């Protein structure tokens, strides 16, 4: 039997000075600093991990390009899950360009920040989901626990869509919220 290699399937890197991490407020001092591959390597080695998949932490194409550039120069980044704007009429052009990049693995939809989640099932975003389903392009989906029913609707409408549920649907530890998540 071949030796299986361990990977971290969801790793964020960021360079604060890039300026597009709007979600990272100043009170998040424990993480509000640059995190780059060199910061992770000692942990990977200590725990016998082969590498990681870098997942975007900002909803910008600049973030995706930043991660692709990091991946090109760092062998511990085995793949990149970037970002595609589901409302962008140019999504197909962008995906076709990203698919030519060897370490690009798919994209992430940050549903958590979408006011009307069901707008993702209309227009260009619906076309994006359909295309992703037909082309077998994996999608990481970031939802809160109160948005899990929307995710089930997506699965019902696109049963062949390869979906990775990010952060386990972000359960809260509040008893009523946790029960709904469970």
Features:
182 residues, alpha/beta
Outline of this structure?
This protein is α/β, with parallel strands linked by helices. The protein has helices at 37-46, 61-73, 91-99, 123-135, 148-157, 175-181, and strands spanning 6-11, 49-55, 77-83, 104-109, 139-141, 163-165.
Report the uncertain regions. none
Strand content: 15-25%
Number of domains: 2
Q: Which structural category fits the helices and strands?
A: alpha/beta
The residue-averaged pLDDT reads 92
What is the topology, as strand order, of the major beta sheet? Answer: 1-2-3-4-5-6
Number of strands: 6
Largest sheet: 6 strands, parallel
> Helix proportion of residues, in percent?
25-40%
Q: If you compute it from the alpha carbons, what radius of gyration comes out, rounded to the nearest whole angstrom?
A: 17 Å
Task: Please work out how many helical segments DSSP would assign.
Answer: 6
The backbone outline, from C-alpha atoms, is globular
Distance between the termini: 36 Å
**Which H/E pattern describes the elements?**
EHEHEHEHEHEH
């Amino acid at each position: 039997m071949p030796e299986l290699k361990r990977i971290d399937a969801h790793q964020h890197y960021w360079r604060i000075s890039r300026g597009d991490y709007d979600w990272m407020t100043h009170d998040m001092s424990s993480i509000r600093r640059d995190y780059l591959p060199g910061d992770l390597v000692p942990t990977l080695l200590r725990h016998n991990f082969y590498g990681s998949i870098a997942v975007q932490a900002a909803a910008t194409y600049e973030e995706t390009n930043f991660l692709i550039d990091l991946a090109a120069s760092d062998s511990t980044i085995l793949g990149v899950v970037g970002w595609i704007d589901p409302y962008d009429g140019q999504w197909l052009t962008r995906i076709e360009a990203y698919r030519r990049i060897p370490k690009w693995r798919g994209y992430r939809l940050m549903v958590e920040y979408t006011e009307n989640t069901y707008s993702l099932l209309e227009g260009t975003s619906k076309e994006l989901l359909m295309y992703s389903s037909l082309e077998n392009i994996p999608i990481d989906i970031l939802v809160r626990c109160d948005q899990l029913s929307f995710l089930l609707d997506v699965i019902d409408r696109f049963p062949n869509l390869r979906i990775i549920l990010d952060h386990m649907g972000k359960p809260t530890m509040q008893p009523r919220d946790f029960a709904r998540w469970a």
